[in-house]
Amino acid sequence: MKKSVIAATLAAALLLAGNAAAQIKIGLHAPQSGPAAADGKSSTIGAEIARDWINDKGGVLGQKLELVTYDDQNKPDQAVPIANKLIGQDKVMAAVSCSYSAPTRAAAAVFQQAHIPYVSAYGVHPDITKEGNWAFRGVQLGPPQGKGAAKFIADKFGKVKVAMVTMNNDFGQSIADGFKEEAPKLGLTIVKEYTFGLGERQFGPIVASVKADNPDVIYAIGYYFVGGPLVAQLRAGGLKQPIVGAQAFDSMKLMEIAKDAAESVYVVGGMDRGRKTPADFQPFLAEFKKRAGYDAEAVAANCYSSVMLVADAIKRAGSTDAAKIREALAAAKDFPMLTGPLRYFNSVGEIYSPLEVTQVKNGAFVGVGVIDEPSILAPPK
Amino acid sequence: MLFAELIVKGLVYGCMYAMMAVGLTLVYGLLRILHIAHAGVFALGAYMAVTVTNATGSLAFGFVIAAAVSAVAGIAIYRLAYQPILHHSAFVPMVVSIGLFIVMQEGFRLIFGAYGIAFDDNPWYVAHVDLAGISLTYVEIAMVVMSVVLLVGFGLFAGLTRAGIGWRATVTDPQMATSFGVDPVRVRYLNFLFGSALAGIAGGLVGLLNNYVEPTMGGAVSYKALAIVVLGGLGSVRGTLIASLVLGVVESFGAIYLADIFDRDAIGFLFLIVVLMVRPQGLLGRR
Amino acid sequence: MSAYIASLVSVIGINLILALGLNIITGFCGQVSLGHAAFYGLGAYTAAYLAKLGAPLPLTLLAGTAMAGAIGIVVGLTSLRVRHDFLAVTTMGIGFVFLGFVRKQKWLGGELGISGIPGPGLDAVPYALLIAAFAMAVAALSLWIKLSWMGFTFDAVADDEDAARTVGVNVSTYKLTAFGIGTALAGTAGGLYVYFARIILPDTFDFVQSIAVLTMVVIGGTGSVWGVFASTIALTLLPEVSRAAADYRLLIFGAMLMLVMRFSPGGLAGLVHRRRPA
Questions:
Q1: Residue B286's pLDDT is what?
Q2: Residues A259, B122 contacting (CB under 8 angstroms)
Q3: What is the domain partition of chain A in residue ranges?
Q4: Do A80 and C249 touch (CB under 8 A)?
Q5: Of A211, A235, A294, which has the smallest distance from its Cβ to B126's Cβ?
Q6: Which one of A209, B64, B66, C91 is CB 3.0 to 4.6 Å from B204, fit for a cystine?
Q7: Measured between CA atoms, how close is A168 to chain B, in angstroms?
Q8: Which residue of A28, A167, A168 is the best one to mutate when testing the C interface, meaning the one whose CB has the most C CBs within 10 A?
Q9: Which residues of chain A lie closer than 8 angstroms to B214, CB-CB?
Q10: Within 10 Å of residue A40's Cβ, how many Cβ atoms?
Q11: Does B278 touch chain C (CB under 8 A)?
Q12: Comparing C16 with A198, which gets the higher pLDDT?
């Protein structure tokens, strides 16, 4: 019984292994089924665009690049066997997580032990990089993002009163922690912090209470699918204050849901869709829309850039030796990520990258500024 | 002022819970099944309302189709999923119901996409009126009006018409009702038809309220609706209505004043557990 | 044994302990629980918290087991108070309350959970074997209970509580025993999971997890130790062999649940034995 199961597993793995000529293998895991499937789908498409474009240009070190992709269902107990499988059976040279924090953190320990370089494309949990020096993060940590938002609000609106509306998960909490640390230093007053669950779509009580607080600015941390209803309901409640959203507001779905109510909302860590740099940004947006049928959001761009980053490191290493790839990754400087240039990785593999601030104008994300201050954005060690 | 607004918002959500929970109570009262797949019917109604409205441009038509498709789906669920296994212990239909809910949820994801969909044109969920300082959107007002009209209509039907009296008699004592010539099978169909149409309309309204319809939208609402049904005393329609409104208000306050200790989804269940410890039969249930 | 096989064995072992534990509550004693993941979480959080303080593995496992079992008995008390169907919704509620509480506790890491948990002090392969040994012990315990006097009494309670009471069975004691053993085992599974994943987040222990465990029990055949054993292994490996069909996995999962209940309410075991429907 058990033998046949193992045989079937191997057969399935072989089926997926595909092109025999491919030599450069990068492992990838993303949530492709279940409730988290939406981001998993976008991020996988983003990564595949990177693979195809690399191969169109002749691959890496003269060889074809292959992505070995598995569905982790957003579960740590799926991610650990997947990581072991990528290492032991698929023999990948490096791996990218296009998944959330829990599976990424669990897999990071496995890759660390096996000494395989690993990049988390958008998992924000602070501990992902703490296991050791083989893990890197291709996105700003939560606390710097929150500090950046505090900086933006203080610069733009002065020493104002802010009401926070925070989503209950690792993304929300870690950004909120950074904001709450930095805000008082910049003279901001946090009148109150409200929290809500990931599944929440009805914010009536929170809106009523924010109205009573009468803040100058509302800082909302959540995904676009909670951001959309939240923004619309704040406006429906008669609140006219500026709304500043966190990175995950960055999706065209925000406007599709909130329609006119999304107008003038700021996003700290968003993507200016009209930006001409880097050179592959506009082609990426077009190609993504063609493949997915909807507009690309930050997670897709993050995964595209993470695969590009790893391929670039292999090129610079000039070798498929894991230790050399790791060194090349650690030495990455001024690499053009779609979400903003990667200036450097710090000693624990955390990215330093400026935060772009966008605003919704006529139903599109338009750049209104960049936060690039090491004192605010420097990742913690 | 804040208190008044919290109560009003709580009552609006309570009306939505009521439209969901009444269907569940009807099914439970008659068949003793915990009809978890009711949440799938709710989401189905929402998807129908959005897609048909976007395709035809008529919101009214969208809602009529939503109610009709949901009603047919409800009847199909009874006929194909529940009827063949009614003779088993209550555990068996409950598990079937869970399976069915998973299938529906995944079906929506595969058909309509993992990303949710929105109404192309929905001015009513931001447009609002101010009543003594409390703002209510047109959709919120519609939610209250629709639930009152439909539930009062149902009450009149059950109390005044021949079919309604037959239905009540069947719930109270199926054997006695049958001996008086009421067809119990027809009553069951009627039950699923009405309860499911109501859930479908509620789904459409929630779609309007959030301007977002997604595969998993049934989950949280249905778990709370189950809590409400138990809170009201399983099978008691009046208890369910009261419990819906009470839970709406309790949650509304909890979301503001208990948020540092519990999240909103937990508050309803916490309330349920406390009530059950004091009154094991629920608010209006009989032992 | 490769590291990949070791990690699969670990996951299977943990799921076996969870499913066999729930089988004692729901299968043997007939008490429906939709909140098993809460006890899994209780064990995991207790073990992780103590492990961070430097407690050794045997102690953290024991504490996780004891904590889950103790709370389990308290929850079991509700089964004495409320009717059968109420119990399903109440236990579901326990799951939501547990999660809603843990999320908000800064000292338990809140939404960030607990990470940076020290390793078990064993390599992946020996640790997988340790988990497997625990799973075997739980299977043996289940068989022993089923064949003992206690098993017959559980059966009587599950079949007809009032009849059992008439023939002098102390129904309350037996229900609480079943809840105590089943939830304590979930706590053990939680403790073992902590050293395997090395991170715990609240969402790992959600309602979906409870349903996943219930599915293993139901498809195996509620009450059948071998049935649950086989179905747990099969369902855990399903994603491994069906990676190509990832998009349809949950759909197939739900359909299976429906079809098994429709045509063989006794699950896999029912297909083999063709016993009376439970």
A1: 63
A2: yes
A3: 2-140+278-349, 142-268+356-377
A4: no
A5: A235
A6: B66
A7: 8
A8: A168
A9: 225
A10: 27
A11: no
A12: C16
Question: Quick one: pLDDT band at residue A8, thresholds 50, 70, 90?
Answer: low
Q: Quick one: closest CA in C to A132, which residue?
A: C116
Provide DSSP, B232-284: T-TT-HHHHHHHHHHHHHHHHHHHHHSTTTS-HHHHHHHHHHHHHHH-TT-SS
Question: In terms of CA atoms, which chain B residue is nearest residue A35?
Answer: B216
Facing C257 at nearest CB: one of B32, B95, B263: B95
**B81-92 average pLDDT score:** 86
Q: C248: which chain B residues are within 8 Å (Cβ-Cβ)? A: 106, 110
A323-352 mean pLDDT = 93
CB C35 within 8 A of CB C210: yes
Q: Which has more pLDDT, A107 or C262?
A: A107
CATH (one of 3.40.50.2300, 3.30.360.10, 3.40.50.20, 2.10.260.10) for A2-140+278-349: 3.40.50.2300
Does C173 score more than 70 pLDDT? yes
Write the pLDDT tens digit of every residue in A124-134.
888 889 888 99
B-chain residue closest to A214, CA distance: B2
State mean pLDDT over C161-177.
Answer: 84
Q: pLDDT higher for C106 or A47?
A: A47
**CATH number given to A142-268+356-377:** 3.40.50.2300
Instruction: Provide the pLDDT for residue A197.
Output: 86
ipTM entry = 0.90
Nearest to B114 among A41, A200, A208 (CB): A41
Backbone angles phi, psi at B130, to 5 degrees: -100, 120
**Which residues of chain C are within 8 Å of residue B273 when distances are taken between CB atoms?**
78, 90, 93-94, 97
| Segments forming the whole domain that contains residue B52 | 2-217
Summarize pLDDT for A287-312 with one digit per residue, the tens: 999 999 999 988 999 999 999 999 99
Q: How far is CA B277 from CA A376, B281, C114, in A?
A: 52, 9, 32
The beta-carbon neighbor of B219 closest among A37, A196, A199 is A199
CA-nearest of C227, C233, C193 to C40 is C193
3-class DSSP state for residue B164?
A: helix
